[in-house]
Specification:
Elements: E1 3-4, H1 10-22, E2 33-34, H2 42-50, H3 52-70
Parallel strand pairs: 1-2
Length: about 70
């Protein structure tokens, strides 16, 4: 699973996904965990990550990723 903190990295992520596919990685791509944190100061990051919606998104994504690992 690839996780990033900036939507500006979408092209880099796409390139990395292609490289990983070429190398036959079992890559989890079902869900994307995208929480924009780039350029934020630590207090802002803490506030964003503490929001119920952010916490639920992280929980759901990690839970789905754990299920992906168990299914392999």
């Amino acid at each position: 699973m690839l996780v990033h903190a900036s939507p500006r990295s979408l092209f880099a992520r796409a390139a990395l996904v292609e490289i990983m596919r070429t190398m036959s990685f079992a890559l989890y791509e079902e869900a994307a965990l995208e929480i924009a944190l780039l350029g934020k100061r630590p207090p802002e990051v803490e506030k964003i990550l503490a929001e119920p919606a952010s916490r639920q998104t992280m929980r759901d994504t990690l839970s789905a990723f754990a299920e992906f690992i168990r299914s392999r």
